[in-house]
Amino acid sequence: MKFPQTEEKLQFSYKKFDRSLEKTIAFRPVELEKDLDRIHRWMNEPHVIPFWQLNFDRDRMRSHLEKALSDRHQTLYIGYLDGVPMSYWEAYWAKDDAIAQCYEPDAGDRGIHLLIGEPKFLGKGYALPLLRAMTNLQFEFSATPKLQTQKVVTEPDIRNAKMIHIFKRCGFVFQREIELPDKRAALMFCDRQSFRKKSEQ
């Protein structure tokens, strides 16, 4: 499907047609002025608030995003489905994140957070293909001779059974429960080799 004209000139980090959905999945880096209102609205959606707890007013959300965008250990993305922005993602270097207090990360370990912001996209089976695409991007993102990512990590809220199940279907393996500053979480790992094999099935 061709992207809407307003989106065609954007710089996407990932853009591929997903045959399981018959739709194009794409991700691009967050831009503060372009995405502030969108992310603010998503963070205030009832299905997002319990797990992200970032239901701030607009000014506080601007400050939060400014700080996040200036943090070199992470990259923020807007996820698209057939040209429609519908999800928010954070990818980070595990060694520079709070999760490093919970296990011994390798230098190339990447981590991800996600949410589907638009309610009309919920419950339609989109989360797993989107997660596979973002996980694939993380393995590709840092695939250099000096620093090749072999493991992607995640730590969903332990209460979020649905998301934990989706991570498992993507190839993530539950390790143990951990305590993070903002939540009790499920520490999960996905290694490159297992992910590639699962993707080929």
Automatic annotation (TrEMBL):
Residues 25-193 form the N-acetyltransferase domain. Pathway: Siderophore biosynthesis. This is Lysine N-acyltransferase MbtK. Gene3D superfamilies: 3.40.630.30. Keywords: Antibiotic resistance, Transferase. One of its GO terms (biological process) is response to antibiotic. GO terms for molecular function: N-acyltransferase activity. Coiled coil: none annotated. Acyltransferase required for the direct transfer of medium- to long-chain fatty acyl moieties from a carrier protein (MbtL) on to the epsilon-amino group of lysine residue in the mycobactin core. The keyword NAD does not apply. It holds the Pfam family Acetyltransf_8. SMART domains: AlcB (SM01006). The keyword Transferase applies.
